[in-house]
Amino acid sequence: MPLDPMPAVMPQPVLGPPPAPRAPHPERWTLPNGLRVIAAHRPGLPQLVIRLTLPAGSVADPPALPGTASLVSSLLTEGTQRLSADELNARLDMLGAAVHASVGHDFTDVEGIFLSDTLAEGIALFAEIVTRPAFPADETERVRAEALDALVARLDEPANVADDRTTLEAFGPEHPYALPSFGTPEGIAAVTREEMAAFHALHYQPRGAFVVVAGDYEPAELRASLETAFADWQGDVPLPVYPPVPPAPRAAGRTVLVPWEDAAQSEIRVAGIGLDRHSPDWIAAGVTNYILGGSTITGRLGANLREDKGWTYGARSAFSAGLAPGGWAAETAVDVEVTAGAVREILAEMRRMTEEPVPEAELRRAKDALVLSLPRAFETPGRIASRLATLEAYDLPRDYWETFPAQVEKVTADDVLRLAREHFDPARVVTVVVGAGIEG
Amino acid sequence: MTEPKLAPLHVPSRTTTLANGMRVVAHEDTSSPIVAVHLMYRAGSADERPGRTGLAHLLEHLMFEGSQHAPKGQFDDLLERAGGTNNGSTWLDRTNYFETVPSNAVELALWLERDRMAHFLPVLGEEMLELQRGVVINERRQSYDSRPYGMADERLHEMLFPEGHAYSWPTIGYMADLEAITLEDARTFYQTYYTAGNAVLVFAGDISPQRAFELAERYFGDLPAGPRIPRIARMGSLPAAPRVRRETMEDDVSFPRLYQAWTVPAYGDAEWVALDVLAFLLADGESSRLQKALVRDGRIAQDVDSYLYPTARCGVFGIVATARSGIPAEAMESAVRRALDEVAAGGVTEDEVLGAVRRVRRDHVAEMATVEERADALAYAATVLGRAEALGEMMDAYGEVTADDVRRVAARYLGAGRAATLVVVPGAEEEVEDAA
Fold first, then answer.
1. pTM, to two decimals
2. Which one of B1, B365, B395, B431 makes the best mutation probe of the A interface by having the most chain A beta carbons within 10 Å?
């Protein structure tokens, strides 16, 4: 084949001004029973997402029964006072609908996805699932057995073992954030149907909860459907109570090794205490973390461990949002032979952030990446619902996303240094390794 | 009560072809000020040869290591600064590279893709190869070797396809092959497949087709067409039986898991659409047949799933189920067989099909919620089926599927004699490094 001439070199394009993100401006109203509604109309795809959030996550579990909130949420779709589990599921499947509940530490979320032309029946079924589950004995025992098996299967994976051990080490055994939000085998085995029904009766209440709807719907039909579907639901959700979060992990400054026979890789976690979602430092902490490990390839951790050394497929770090101060963790998985070196490099990158001010260009880059990516955050009904739910759940200002760029812009290199010293100081974090090779 | 009809779902697009053969597809959606730029090459792991498996995917990694005018680190850096994201992926029939950017940064994405299509070879070197070889070996360890049941799919495909068939080896590649790949291998694969004439470029989002076509011409119109790569040939006839019918594999897991797979017609075939509906009818939704038979009523499995690969040479239909405590995999296998036989014997109602079709549609809508995913779907249709418009025709075809279609494809393709059956049981993990 003849050799082609070298193609021309083109100049790198100069970008015009970025487009303004179009943050959704939802409608907000409150139903007569106190249930708040936030609705973002988004025509286009013939689908809508409805998401009910209750301040009833695993923090609300009875102390001896971790896993109660999670089991209750799994049983919502296992039959109502009107429909057997089979009847309910046949109806949902016929509509092409999906209803799933998820339980975090702070909140329980129930999400329904419906095709737009099934809105009225979809919302009626959704309300029935949330407000009138029956906890049938037979289905309860099946779901319990499945949950117990799933916990066993989960621990076949070293990454899960590392995650569980890390939260336990970070928060200590007394704090509910230390346990996975889906509970423990003991709690799941012990909780009775009556205790599940009692949890539901106490925590699944309209006043204190809220519903976010996003997608394509007829506004009048949505209002009428919600009003009718939730008309009989009355009561207040009790506020969760949080024990104090320890200022630092008990084993701060140390490394915990969980041996794993024949490990192909070591799972490494470095974790400490972060901040609550309300903290005035939340946005600056996000910028600080972005520089260290917010982007799995270009953050300092990824650039060092993956791009420079080729030791891992990726490395990253994040603050977890919480009503109480959540955790901060860095994570990666590396060749067993380089485990000790990888731990050293992670801690060295963290220490460097506490010692040297971030160069202006690197700070600029982090700010641009966080702000200019905003248009993508509002692209789909699911993402819109999630962003709106965050504002409502953590009681953040309604113009949060409009003012976000200015808030990010205000973050200085001094802020980054201060937050790195508060959260990335190797003396204030615990290291967990599941695998081998730490001796090297 | 009348059931609502299937909600329509269309992804309108326009296509043009540059003089060098590059096909350009434009889908305009102004609802968010972002644009997805998607470049798909008709080259995947099925275009590798035995002994060099993993080459297509390793080359994808190398493509992010810089090109002549955007050296290492710049690709991610420039896009992230502009508020964009980017990634790439390799599968059996294609490799793709995609960026989602604010609408002011479309030209940056094009400039970067042009540079690595036109000016990559001068930077391709040993050091870069060794580094990414290490990253990919770690990806293999993390995503396959150390994951519970992580080796099952690889073995299942070796069992399902004739020896040496292009779908018989894993996209990630065998460990020994990953160690063996040379710079020359990477160079040759790049020169053969990474050309304008072998690529589809899709724009989806806040950009007019006219501007998309102008930009495509400006950034790619002068590049050479490259060697002519024939369209992917469908398998002439599907194998009557798998190469290996049945095998048991030990792994460091707590519960037995059943894997079954069948070769079926390729993506784009009317029967493929009926098989997709069957996959949802069997295991998507709590009222579906396998959920009832294995999980809810039978109580022998913790979970069951069914899937259908949208692949070009032929399709692959699969069923996976994990046993409950104390249940052997054979019990699940019998229950799956009974359910498939019932479907094949005509036990499916039109209502059951309607529900399954609606659940397919729900997933399609969710999968196409982003411009990035719509660009991918259009690029895939253009690459594998030859036309982006074929996507919409396939979407519409779901509304035509009848109970009899579902019965027929189950009877024709999912018989016991055509299944490859792999059972993973708790035990000592097998040595994987010698698998090749």
1. 0.93
2. B365
